[in-house]
Design goal:
Length: 167
Amino acid sequence: SATDGWAVGERTLDDGNVVGAILHYTGDQWADVPVTTDIRLFAVQMVSADEGWACGIFGLLHYSGGQWTPVVVQTEVPVLMQSLAMLSPAEGWIIGKADDDGPDIALHYADGRWTSQRLSARAAVSGIQMLAPDEGWAAGTFGILHYTGGTWQRVERPVAKPLHDIA
């Protein structure tokens, strides 16, 4: 809203370690939110003033009850998560680059939990947009994915250029 916002990223500590950073806008200024996470954050999406999600390099955070807390999602390999799309407080998606350079891994939030699925394609997704529970798009370094009919499928693109976001 005009008086409430969030931003995520990373910071370098005095010892050289890079960790996650979260800022909160409360109507007149941005404030640093104390958070202990080594997740370098790339995306944040709030589903209400009291609930939201942030994701990044190999990790996911959930905002609820005024606190950001790590959420463990079981995946076969660590996942680089650069974008997320929450359709509602009850449903959302993340598609991330698998740490083994194999096909991407989709994370789906439904029924109060995240589940993971290895896709048949590799796009190294950095942007995702869901239009409805059964329709969405994702774009990345190696291509475009389309979600329809309950599956993510790679679609042809006119040029072989890395893509960073989709709308």
